[in-house]
Amino acid sequence: MLVLHAVWSLPDFAEQAVGLAAMTLVLGLVARPVLDFRVRRWAPTVLIGAGIFVIWIVPDLLFPNYRHSPLFENVVLGTARNPLSEAARRDPAVLAMRMLRAAVIVPVAEELFWRGWMMRWMIDADFRRVPLGAYTTTSFWTVALLFAAEHGPYWDVGLAAGIIFNLWMVRTKSLGDLILAHAITNGCLSAYVIAAGKWEYWL
User: Fold this and answer.
1) I want to staple 162 with a disulfide (CB 3.0 to 4.6 A). Which of 118, 144, 146, 176 is the partner?
2) Per the structure, how many domains does the chain have?
3) Is residue 6 part of a domain?
4) Phi/psi at 51 (nearest 5 deg)?
5) In a domain, 129, yes or no
6) Is 27 among the domain residues?
């Protein structure tokens, strides 16, 4: 989807609709047999999700130019920029789809990939033999670092989030708890993006 976007730009509504539909379809067709939304620890999971949201925005609130140093914005990491057009920012349907993708679809996809698969695959290529939440130093820190790298100029808060999410998976051994925590973080962040006009958080 990212490669296609770079070479073939769709109108705002179509781009959000296609992205949301494609991700939902893939998860429904491919991942459905392994999805488990049971939450074992509701209260701490919600608090963790909200806490990571706070960690995400605090550096920029305390230090307004913090994100624009070469440590965060460079040719490797990219820049924290507004990904939405002026028209998209005024379109409730576009914003609703973007928020739905961030708060519902992305948490499922990312938790399946990072903590449902990669943390286990790094322990044993036949990852199905490895229980959720299994810990090795290599798998834990590799996933945390790659999760940080995925977030480009927000790698520092991405690293903090990756470490906390990894720890919570080791503790709960529950995909449902991780999906909920991630959904709370992304939902809060999406609401903040729209309310405060901090569009750059939607990289």
Assistant:
1) 144
2) 1
3) no
4) -65, -40
5) yes
6) no
